[in-house]
Amino acid sequence: MLITIAGCGALGGLLAAHMIGGGLQVQVLQRKGKTLEVLKYKGITLVSEENMEGITFPLAAVSDKAWKLSPSKLILVLVKSYSTSDIFPLKEILDFDGVVLTIQNGLGNAEKLSDIFGEEQVAAGITTYGGVSMSPGVVKEGLKGAITFGPWSKSGKTDMTWIAGVLKNAGLRIDYVEDPRPLIWKKLVMNVMANPTFALTRMSPREIYKSDLSLELMKRIGSEAVKAAKRAGVDLELDQMWTFFMENLKKAPDHKPSMLQDMEAGRKMEIDSIAGEILKYGRDENDFPCIRTMYSLLKAIDLSRGNI
Prior knowledge:
Rossmann fold; 4-stranded mixed β-sheet
């Protein structure tokens, strides 16, 4: 089967390598730049602690223009959340019974994709896989996690379990759920506790774990996010979230979160889909003060760099 990946950065490259290694064909829609050129002429190179020289996986096709790609039954959306609407041209290559699966950070992505492709053709979920971009077209394997997803539509008309079968057969860890919304909120709470703090302090999980002030701030952010989730109709327990969060810090002491990678590279950060979406559930400008402060600081940094 031919899988299309929209956005082949750290996570996209990691998953592309695993899928190709598992017997699938992968084509990529990638914006113009050095990564596009490397992917075209070399493919994606995956390095790991066990193999620092890396293994290079050839891609079936690579382009910045959707019309140059072949028809596809599954499109995996991994562009930054602020670029979700830009993949509109992929509508022309999605099979009539195909599915668009987003495992992007934050809220609002499935809604945007539903506007483009129709709700019945959209799946959404989360992933705990993690990679670090070493250079254009070269990704280092990080967290060895899983993908959990389900249909965005609540109609029950569309069976998307076939996607789980395809990805499992390629060697990925996959879980299927009937409604992905609670999981997306759970991941969002984790993201908003971690990403802004890591980006602003530039600490590693190992360092954050030893910083009482940082941990106190992150827990306050988590409390505000859980309150927002409740207003959205999703009940989450802060203590359970915090225990899970701390366990993950221990498991990946040297992992570099995506927002920290963007901060260091001078790229635009996904602060709107992560923190900005939560602030929409605030009742006034004084609600969610910790998240609001982090949001304002990171937006100011983006604006100062011309990342509008």
